[in-house]
Amino acid sequence: MKQKMAQLLSSNAGFSTLALRIPIGIIFMAHGAQKLFSWFGGYGLEGTGQFFESIGLAPGVAMAFLAGSAEFFGGLFILLGLLTRPSALVLAFTMLIAIVSVHLQNGLFMSNGGYEFGLALLAASVSLMLSGSGRIAVDKWLESKIVK
For 43-76, how does the pLDDT look when each residue is reduced to its tens digit (9 = 90+)? Predict the structure, then answer.
């Protein structure tokens, strides 16, 4: 068990992942806060839930809660470098659902409601899932405590 946890937390990446984790973590947290708390011009659980219901993601409020929680807490964990790989996996899955359910039919470009932004977030999430958190991260500290 100890060895599996150490593998999950380990990362051979250097400092470059920090340059990815900071903006991606902030972006995901902001989008999650829109869904969960109505911050930054968001519609909150009720409004987002109604939208989700309208596109066939039911029950809407529950789906809004799941998406918002994945984005807000996943973004926070990515920002901190805490459980980076599983957090990035959840965020990649969330972005895949967003792309397929909401944006794909609108084409690539954001100006038409397309999937380019979701695709960029998906790519960043997959990158962090594969690389891990890097040197400056809570994961690195936890790994050092587990290996001892």
Answer: 999 999 999 999 999 999 999 999 999 999 999 9
Q: What sign does the CA torsion over 125, 131, 132, 133 have?
A: negative
C-alpha–C-alpha distance, residues 47 and 11, integer Å: 39
Q: How far is CA 91 from CA 34, 75, 86, in A?
A: 16, 8, 9
Q: What is the 3-state secondary structure (H, E, C) of 81-146?
A: CCCHHHHHHHHHHHHHHHHHHHHHHHCCCHHHCCCHHHHHHHHHHHHHHHHCCCCCCHHHHHHHHH
* Vertex 46: Cα angle to 29 and 104 (nearest 5): 65
